[in-house]
Amino acid sequence: MTHIITSLCVRDRGCIEVCPVECMVPGLPSAEWPWVYIDPETCIDCGACVPECPFAAIYPEDEVPSAYTAKGGEFITNVGLTGRFEGTNHHGKQVVMDNARQLAAGEVIDLTPDIKPNYDFFKTGPGYSTKDIDQGV
Ligand code: SF4
Ligand code: SF4
Question: pTM (2 decimals)?
Fold first, then answer.
């Protein structure tokens, strides 16, 4: 099994530094790969990244919710969304995501379609190559 980063990720990057096997990779270009992605072949399911995420975006694969109920105000990011998220990441750098949408309180969304991109990123996407060109946002 592996852990999965869902579309609740807004790339604040708090998770990356704690991973003992360095298998969390920021997606680039962010319009196409908006999240940080976990290499399912390398993740050891230690769970260290989960409490580091201020946005509760990370789940064990078999616990990714099919009916996530929004608290209200949180953002999802995904290909094709057109709203904007602005925040500050763990390094104090501004994060702007132009493919975001703010959720309304009580809105229910299925996060299970987010599982496949975590696999695709390493199978058919850029994978670890983005680590070399990532600028920290
Ligand atoms: S800490 Fe959460 S929001 Fe930040 S990059 Fe990691 S998964 Fe995404
Ligand atoms: S569960 Fe552990 S090994 Fe897997 S991505 Fe998170 S910190 Fe890394």
Answer: 0.95
